[in-house]
């Protein structure tokens, strides 16, 4: 008689525990977001950096799971969205841009994940075809590129967040520290910060953030074509069988 096999608890896998920690840090950063930019930026940044650690742990410990993949993606989407919502309120003249970024981020990742599940069988959503654009392939196939792009994309929005609390009067285009920015809130005045390093982060991360948005558009288009091709093949089979 063979000994009973030990039942694994997927929810307690190390990568998923790291994922839960990311959620706690993100939620805590949201609590401090309106009034304490330094604490918020620190906690939010640590949560983002742990995004690389959970993947490394999953590969090292052989604990890669579909639940962990979904947990990681949902955490990424939600944390970024929360920050963009704050930025939309901090810079209302640019709110339509932030709303567009949220919509593009969600739609491109959702349709890519759906296409992978519907058309790709058991393949990972990070496995892309050779026929797909180079910019999209290198993003998913090279872990270093994936981590760097995601990191600088978040740094871009963190820099904007810090700029909204800047004490400078000429922080950037159209006086982002004016009366309609988050830095003008009465309870935040004591926490105003200098704009030098946020402006440096903003300048450095801008090109990478733009590349990330290009990748999102490519991902949306390619996944849509993939699903449409599946529809064409399904309809062709239906006509043959009828």
Automatic annotation (TrEMBL):
Transmembrane segments: 12-33, 145-163
Recorded topology in the membrane: Multi-pass membrane protein
Key words, A-Z: Lipid biosynthesis, Lipid metabolism, Magnesium, Membrane, Metal-binding, Phospholipid biosynthesis, Phospholipid metabolism, Transferase, Transmembrane, Transmembrane helix
Keyword Magnesium attached: yes
EC number: 2.7.8.11
GO terms for MF: CDP-diacylglycerol-inositol 3-phosphatidyltransferase activity; metal ion binding
Reaction it catalyzes: a CDP-1,2-diacyl-sn-glycerol + myo-inositol = a 1,2-diacyl-sn-glycero-3-phospho-(1D-myo-inositol) + CMP + H(+)
CC cofactor: Mg(2+); Mn(2+)
GO cellular component: Golgi apparatus; membrane
Record keyword Transmembrane present: yes
Broad class of enzyme this protein falls into: transferase
Subcellular location(s) of the protein: Membrane
Biological processes per GO annotation: phosphatidylinositol biosynthetic process
UniProt main location, coarse: membrane
Family, per entry: Belongs to the CDP-alcohol phosphatidyltransferase class-I family.
Name of the protein in question: CDP-diacylglycerol--inositol 3-phosphatidyltransferase
Organism in which the protein naturally occurs: Aspergillus calidoustus
């Amino acid at each position: 008689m063979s000994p009973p096999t030990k039942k694994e608890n997927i929810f307690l896998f190390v990568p998923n525990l790291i994922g839960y920690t990311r959620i706690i840090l993100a939620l805590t950063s949201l609590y401090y977001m309106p009034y304490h930019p330094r604490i918020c930026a620190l906690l939010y940044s640590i949560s983002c950096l742990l995004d690389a650690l959970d993947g490394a742990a999953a590969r090292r410990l052989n604990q890669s799971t579909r639940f962990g993949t979904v947990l990681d993606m949902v955490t990424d989407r939600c944390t970024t969205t929360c920050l963009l919502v704050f930025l939309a309120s901090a810079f209302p003249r640019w709110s339509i841009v932030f709303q567009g970024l949220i919509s593009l981020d969600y739609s491109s990742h959702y349709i890519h994940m759906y296409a992978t599940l519907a058309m790709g069988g058991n393949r990972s959503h990070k496995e892309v075809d050779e026929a797909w654009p180079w910019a999209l392939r290198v993003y998913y196939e090279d872990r270093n590129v994936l981590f760097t792009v995601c990191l600088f994309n978040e740094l871009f929005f963190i820099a904007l967040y810090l700029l909204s609390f800047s004490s400078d009067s000429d922080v950037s285009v159209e006086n982002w520290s004016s009366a309609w920015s988050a830095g003008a809130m009465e309870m935040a005045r004591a926490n105003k910060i200098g704009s030098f390093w946020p402006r440096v982060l903003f300048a450095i991360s801008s090109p990478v953030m733009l590349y990330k948005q290009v990748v999102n558009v490519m991902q949306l288009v390619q996944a849509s074509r993939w699903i449409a091709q599946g529809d064409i093949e399904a309809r062709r089979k239906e006509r043959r069988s009828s």
